[in-house]
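G., before I forget:
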Amino acid sequence: MSASHDASRRRFLKVLGSASGALIVGLQLPVRADTPDALLGDVVSRLNPYVRIEPDGTIVIGARDPEVGQGIRTAEARIIAEEMDADWPRVIVLPMTLAAEDDGDGEPRWTLGHQEARGSTGVPAAWNDLRAVGASARELLIRAAAQRFGVDARTLRTQLGKVIARDGRALGYGELAAAASVLPPPNAAPALKSADEYRLLGQDAGDVDARDIVTGRQSHAIDKILGGALVAVIARCPFPGGDLSRLDADAARALKGVEQVSTIPRPNPSLPLGARPFAAGVAVLAHDTWTALRARELLKIEWKPGPLVQSDDALAASLDARFEQPPTTVVRNDGDYDHARKLSHRAVRARYRIATVAHAELEPPNCLAQVQSDRALIVAPLQNPRGALGVVQGLTGLRPSQIEIRLPRSGGGMGRTLDNDHVAEAATLAKTAKKPVKLIWTRDDAFANDAYRPFAVHELEAGLDRKNRITAWRQRIASTSRLAGRGEPRERWWLSEAHPDDPPAGLIENFQLDWFALDSALPRGNWRAGSHGVNAFAVQVFLDEIAVATKQDPLQLRLDLLGEPRQLPYRGHGGPVLDTGRLAWVLKLAADAIGWTKKRTDGHGLGLAFHFTYGGYVAHALEVSMEGTRLVIHRCVIAAHLGRVINPLGARASLVGATLDGLSTALGLRITVKDGRIAQTGFKEYPLATMAQLPRDVQTILVPSQEAPTGAYEMGLPGAAPALANAVFAATTVRVRSLPVMPELMRLL
Amino acid sequence: MPRLPQTDPGITPEPIRPGIDLVINGEPYRHTGDPAMPLLWYLRDVLRLTGSKYGCDDASCGACNVLLDGKLARACALPMEKLQGSSLTTIEGLAKSDGALHPLQQAWIDEDAILCGYCQPGMLIAAADLLARKPEPSDGDIDGIGNLCRCGSHPRVRAAIKRAAATMKGARR
């Protein structure tokens, strides 16, 4: 037996092994008596932890990852259904809960593998794990049919939810399910389909929850409730790191319907943001939301400010001095930048400024929590459910198996709910209230107490030879690390801020990438596509600036830089290699589709950008013009190489969605600090772009591929902003070096 | 003729509680709580009609859109005291009572205009209002929908509105 076969078998057993205990592959354990399935007998036949079949042939597939709008439930179910040969219209998809067993030492053992929404990793993990889940279910059904027909299982085939014999006899999965569910499961990973046998994968599938969403029946996390739950809202200290100084809650307590007013102490700063309540505060628990909100208005509170929060402007003013000092980390240093720069024929230099932004996910943080002496329940928008379980464990001392974490659909995580401060708050309140607590964050809460994507400055300098080839490149990034204040040593802080192998690293002989730590005292968190979302802006706009300065075509300059198709080593998420040919290919596709070579005489300008994000290769091409003081984005083309695409309809939704999110943010969004607190309190001051500002014509091009899928949710974001700025330059000859674009463009025009 | 329930003679009936009477999705309701309560919390907390989503408190996002006497309104900005005698349609009432979907709902499914789905009920209500006013909306008319969506569903929402408009035009013929 080969080593790789052995490894795949180990993974297969791990994936199928389940807390439910209904069937564990390779071991014949009895069905646990307390499982509802056992009570239901053969009404519901569970073939493995993910698949159950009802007698009428309805196939219920469990989706393990939290759905935040990335389409993961649809994609996971399609992968399982494909290998099962299920009849898709008869598939129902239900969310699974976080699966954790006790490991015997009080720590959780995760029994379903990947259960998170982070870094566009859901589909690649599902591709690795869940095909075998579907194939094993199919094998059980075939063996059950073989017994019924009295034939060799190898003579049977499956099609659209049926097992079919050579003589034409056929049995539906619903008729076979009860018998299949008591068969010993396969003890080796069954053979998987080859790509030419796929009927579902690669075909468009609408979101499995679509009907419930359009009829208003879909419960998002915020819609979940338990009988007897109290609604909680919290007045949080508006000064980051500050504390409560004086409280008069008499009027709030006197309001009818208010059950409790309690203080939340300033959290221990040694605990990371995602593992503790967000801030010092005063919580109001009432019988309904409106009463809780009114009571919060009646609180008389004085706050003690924390460490002074630096505004973006103050940080920017400090940078000249900061860049004189050595970097916090030299992230990459190839050749000899200083020497090559001195020898260069000419130089281009620019500094780019990225504003602080907020999450503004449409469903604000919320959490339903129940804490009892022997069990706890959490229902919340969660991208990091394992972290949520850890938070509850820490607060309650319960064992992992006593904590149920449900994963309802949520209204766009965007990275905000990778932190579990909402869970810590609700669980803390529920523990003392001894009743279920439904914690709601209002919109102004969410703006004032976010884990922001921080301010950053990128300074780039390039040296060119007499033939205008780039011989030296230095990028200096100054930002607040996401890892600062999260228990990570300072030497590692650069990891969330700079990617050592992002192009043009490896393409220029003398290359230096430096990172400088900044501290604004603002809480800093995860934001869609992470630092890729800002680093691509600096690099791709700077490439355009070099092209303009040296009178080169911006497309040709990029293609020359990428050079011959080859694989470069890529450390970090998306590696182990980056294929320069793929970047060049998607760039050419996008440029062709937008009509790059066609001369524009109508005041329209075209802009390009490419980026490699988490294994996905994406290029953007935009066409814009100025109509008076209005910037019109006429067209947008997104070309992407994402490996095999499981659900093209979903992948296109993700690519377009991330692109429009990137454009909306780049056009006009910024968080500012005034008097030590966040100035923006609502959408009126943080205006997401609407239909009128976003392009009507958005085209996606997916490169066909036989390679493993990369996921799709975040890849469309990084290139959008630089393509916009480059198109604005082409239309106006005004070079915008700041995000957001519009305030700076209006200043420069 | 159904027989009226027999009650004990001579017992004074319970006094009728003062309240705000309104019709939601064809059903009569009486709100007897705080008259200042915004409609949104009445729908969500009292009636458990959670299809109208909470996104903000200042009528800027549109996630709580309802039709108030046939016109677009934001439930977060409508105190109950202003709703005496009014008739409301929420997302739960957009389909026919037999479950047949509104052409907009079908178009939303056909165009897969979903993503996270949180803002879509409000988008659908805004679109229903638009098509009621402009059965054949131009792109410029559709641009007037100011609902907020961070997922970037806008092009699919636009396509779904056009698809529904075409369906409804065909049905009128």
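Confidence is low (pLDDT under 50) at residues 1-42 of chain A. Chain A has 20 helices and 32 strands.

More on Monday.
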